[in-house]
Amino acid sequence: MAQLALPDEVEVVNVGLPMFADAIRDQGRPVQHVDWRIPAGGDLAAVAALGRLYGDHAAAIDEANAEVVRRLNEGVPQLVGISTVADAVPGYEGRMILHSGPTLPYLDHCDPLRRSMRAAVVAEGWASDVEEAGGLLARGEITLDAANHHDAVVPMASAVGPSQPVFVVENREGGTRAFSSINQGPGEVAWFGRETDAAIARLRFLAEIGGPAIRRIVEAAGPLDILAIAAQGITMGDDLHMRTQAATNLLTRTWLPHIAALPDDAREPFAQYLGGNHLFFLNLAMAAAKSLQLWAQQVGGSSIVTTMSRNGTTFGIKLAGSSDWHITEAPPVGEAMYYSGQGPETSAKDIGDSAVLELTGMGGPAAGGSPAVAAFLGGTMADAAAATEGFQAICAGRSSRFTLPPMGFVGTPLGVDVRKVVELGITPKVTTGILHISDGSGQVGAGVAAAPVECFVSALHDLDRRLSGSGQG
Length: 473
Hints:
Helix content is 38%, strand content 21%. By secondary structure, the chain is an alpha+beta fold. The strands form six sheets. Strands 6-9-8-3-10 form a five-stranded mixed sheet. The radius of gyration is 23 Å and the shape is globular. It starts with 11 loop residues before the first strand and ends in a 5-residue tail after the last helix.
């Protein structure tokens, strides 16, 4: 019998648990780890749906997805004007408040959003104080609806009434138009879940001074290519969600001559507001993203997510070609940095329409280019790059306009594919602020919220039903 001889050199491919790869690596031997996981976490119904969507329907889905990615990548949203909710937003009528996230009865909304709703009601003059406003809202005397139902998006705990100014953003290639409120700024403001006199005064300032000032500026400056500025901001370290300083500064420079030409009674207060608002560009980027997604939404038979929104209580998504929400409980915000004395126990759940950015190549997909965001993801640029790569694993394409210098100018991931999300169990991670859960004190930190997989599984089954009639809920 021949004597068994062990090899002198060993190279290993490890599939599955990473601890085995680590053990080999610790012994100084080369190892390639394959991050394999059970598809769909072993959910047999989801695996069967994936088999059909990657099988018989794959070619049609891939063709639809390519068109969705093209629309998200090639549309050129432009700021063309400033109007008000009442005058511009489609479907707005009566005494209505538009808010972030899917719709819920007033008392089912989280504390910060209820406070913002009350502040909006007082700012509109429908109530004399927040207590009276709460009574009107609880009795259903004021209609509540999702901004997303009106081609609009609002960040964090925003709630806006008819007098509030909105950006009017036009995507001429797709014939779509989207809207977003004007960013209220940091500090004592309603979109952070505050209902103080100062928060109400800021809403009135935007209606009476801020909005009209921006209208004058846009009329003088002409249409603004929003995502051209966003692209520059990303190369300068913005992710365009958690950090928008560079894009806000670029926009301020572009508008500076027109700011200087404002009437005397508007110039100084508007300059003070803009100079203290590093998040001003956020709402512009959101409206631009929404205009592209309204175009992408028109493509049937796609597995790409075109709506992703949260209200602090629930988290909802929609797929291209479908108007149906898929809703589950909102997640907490993890990987967080908190203000002194704050922590998970004082934090509200994930909130806002701003996840529209993650679906358009901004926010989490751009993390790999942002040192500021890296601080929330482990502290190194390698951690930030891993966040971008995590998005690429679940996306159908890459952006040609948003590139990341620290990653070799690679394009940001674009087009979240529900099939990949469910198959891999990797959900989008949203960079976001954190509000206090109950005391109305406003922002308590910032971090990263991982979207819950349940709504993606629901959307997968819905797509399967629509395409093959054999999906299972």
